[in-house]
Amino acid sequence: MSEDEFRTLITGAGYPEVRAISYEPNQAPELHTHDFDAKGVVLTGALTIVLDDGATTFEVGEVYDVPAGTRHAEHTGDAATSVIVGVRPA
Q: Is the pTM of this model over 0.90?
């Protein structure tokens, strides 16, 4: 999915805020939660979303969801990663 397609998607889904986030290579923060729903698309690199019950890696153009209150962490590999994230209050 392109950035423009993603922005259209999240606007239609009621995400009022959009954040551009850049991650350095080899980041592996601890599990945490947010008080908002997040829907993101990977623009460069790859992002692994780690949950209590496993992990999924998302490549360029792939969309991921992290519902409010979900314990998760965003891990990166050997390359810098950039994403656009829609944020919606829970």
A: yes
